[in-house]
Amino acid sequence: MSHASYELKAEARERVGKGSSRELRRNGFIPAVIYGDKQSPIAIALSTNEVTKRIHAGGFMTTVATIDVNGEKIQVLPKDYQLDPVRDFTMHVDFLRVSGNTEVSVEVPVHFVNEEKSPGIKIGGVLNIVRHAVELLCPANDIPEFLTVDLTGAKIGDSLHISAVKLPAGVRPVISDRDFTIATIVAPAAGVAEEEPASAE
Q1: CA 107, CA 113: separation in Å to the nearest integer?
Q2: Quick one: 129 and 94 in the same domain?
Q3: How far apart, in whole angstroms, are the C-alpha atoms of residue 115 and residue 29?
């Protein structure tokens, strides 16, 4: 399961558009939108400090949050956020409304363990990571924080596929038509192994 859920306080926004968004940011707020679940979108304003803190804490895109909009509590999952390209502060956030049975598509990072138990790496082989994250379909309230790929026994020339990863119940990869590669163990002299062709995505 991902990071612990949290709550953010928000105010509904009456005015939308560039002018009002700029004014919000000057006053320490971020414009955001809650959409989905067959309901009308709600334009809201959130505290810049609170949202920035959550983004930097990690797991922002895989953690269900509760947003209190003038007393109404709405369960959401962040779907996208925009950063100012120059000053790196948060400009806007999109939230998807979720309920217990909502299935969501999320990018989950991949962690590699037991490198010291890989004969290929022990003799100088290189772990060539093809996918640093995998897009998964998961229940909104049960998103894995990361996927674990065990390198025990991996030799030079081995490929590690999604089928080798133990996925939690109810979780499946978005790419379902093939057993795609997550990483390979390559000989040090071979340079970088070829990734999957982009056309296969």
Answers
A1: 19
A2: no
A3: 44
CA distance linking residue 40 with residue 33, whole number of Å: 10
One domain, residues 95 and 29: yes
- Please check whether residues 153 and 122 belong to one and the same domain: yes
| Per-residue pLDDT tens over the stretch 134-164 | 999 998 888 888 999 999 999 999 999 999 9
- Give domain status of residue 179, yes or no: yes
The span from the first CA to the last CA of the chain, in angstroms, equals 27
Which residue range(s) make up the domain with 181? 104-200
Closest CA to 46 of 77, 21, 75: 21
Split at pLDDT 50, 70, 90, the class of 190 is very low
Residues 75-86 pLDDT 10s = 999 999 888 878
